[in-house]
Amino acid sequence: MKAILENISKHVILTPQEQELFLSKTEIHHYKAKTILLNSGAICKHSYFVNSGILRSFNINDNIVEHVLTFACEGWWIGDMYSLLSQKPGNLFIEVLEDAEVVLLSKENQEILYREIPKLERFFRILTENSLVANQERLMDNLSLTAEERFEKFCRKYPTLIQKVAQKQIASYLGVTPEFFSKMKSKMLRK
What we know:
Elements (H helix, E strand, L loop, with lengths): L1 H8 L6 H9 L1 E6 L4 E3 L7 E15 L5 E7 L4 E2 L2 H6 L6 E14 H10 L2 H26 L2 H11 L9 H8 L3 H13 L1
Antiparallel strand pairs: 1-6, 2-6, 3-4, 3-5, 3-6
Helix pairs in contact: 7-8
């Protein structure tokens, strides 16, 4: 639980009693690779913090094509923000890509913590703002950068994922076909 407390301490400082209360409202789960934590059409009831392993969020369009929205590595949070905040059915799947230890914080317990430890509201506001900024930046990148530039940026943002995540999932994240990604990657490696 040290990792999640260190994550929180980047933005707010909790007293030992507040840390204890926070931890009492969380659950630790171990998941095997390929476990689906959230299905499209379900209501997201938890925020997930990755202690170890890799998770991804994605959706599947009407043509049965996957679109990876994000990856979450050690020390990252993930969830279906639309569904979690609105408590309406979402359109994202959350899948474990690599065996993982994940801390779950339920929406209900998060609301309790907001009342009991108001500075946690600030913490989650900062996370939400950072997520909004990252999503806007990704949207602008998809509109203005070439696939090669998006891949280079991906490599800088997720340096450890290149060897751990299937190429078709990286291609999906970049918005290109696996075939195009394979050709682009080999061309870039020849440079």
